[in-house]
Amino acid sequence: MTARRRGSKVEQDLSERQRYWLAHLRKAEQRGEPLKAYAKRLELSKSSLYEAKRRLRACGLIAPAIPHRSATPGFARVAMATREASAAISLRVRLASGAVLEWREAPQGDALRELIGLVS
User: Fold this and answer.
1) For residue 24, which of 53, 66, 61 has the smallest C-alpha distance?
2) How many alpha carbons fall within 13 Å on the CB side of residue 61?
3) Are residues 87 and 44 in the same domain?
4) Does any domain span residue 3?
5) What is the pLDDT of residues 8-19, one digit of tens each?
């Protein structure tokens, strides 16, 4: 949860209130408990807890949020390459991560269905 970066605020520089919220955030993380449930269980203000987390993250004391991927696949942009550019490549797939997969001969049948399942 904590992240130390150059120029980040040091815990000793925090106000008593900031230390209070940081302790709660750490306890919730140690328990693996979602903040919403943690706040409800201890009768804390959920909005104050989330705001404290946002501010402590801005100070560099809490690691940046990890973006999560949706379980539902979204639409993918498809563009046709020019005939000259695609002459040597039969199939090109660009993943959401930016990685590009290319085949000189396009997969057929079950292999193609399996590939479509992996990228969708």
Assistant:
1) 53
2) 19
3) no
4) no
5) 567 778 889 999
